[in-house]
Specification:
single chain; 119 residues; mainly beta; seven-stranded mixed beta sheet; two-stranded antiparallel sheet
């Protein structure tokens, strides 16, 4: 788990919450409740395909909005990132952001480091 700060830069609102690094997710996602907390306005929708434990695929149309995301523990920020609003309990940092980072996992120590890739 990482500390993540979500920001609506237009309204100057922000909220810190816990997030997961999710290599299985193509796009980052945030809990739906942040739509009201941060007063963000979705600008489109997208179809999300998810796999369930019974091997059925479920497609659903979900809202997409722009937010600023900061991985506060690592001092890494992303501005105006498209995120999907989902009925989830944590922020998911997907491959859209992870592909811009170096993530070093030290499993035996239960530690990890994150740094931004050079441009």
């Amino acid at each position: 788990m990482v500390k993540v700060k979500l920001k609506n830069s237009w309204k100057e609102l922000e909220e810190e919450f816990l997030g997961l690094l999710d290599t299985g997710s193509e796009i980052s996602a945030i809990p739906k409740r942040f739509e009201k907390i941060l007063e963000i306005i979705p600008y489109t929708t997208t179809i999300i395909e998810s796999a369930t434990s019974n091997e059925d695929n479920i497609d659903s149309e979900q809202k997409v909005a722009l937010v600023d995301i900061e991985l506060t523990e690592f001092g890494i920020s992303f501005n105006q990132i498209s995120v999907v609003l989902l009925d989830i309990d944590v922020i998911l940092i997907g491959r859209d952001l992870l592909n811009q980072l170096y993530v070093n996992l030290a499993g035996p120590k239960s530690e990890f480091e994150i740094s931004k890739r050079p441009n």
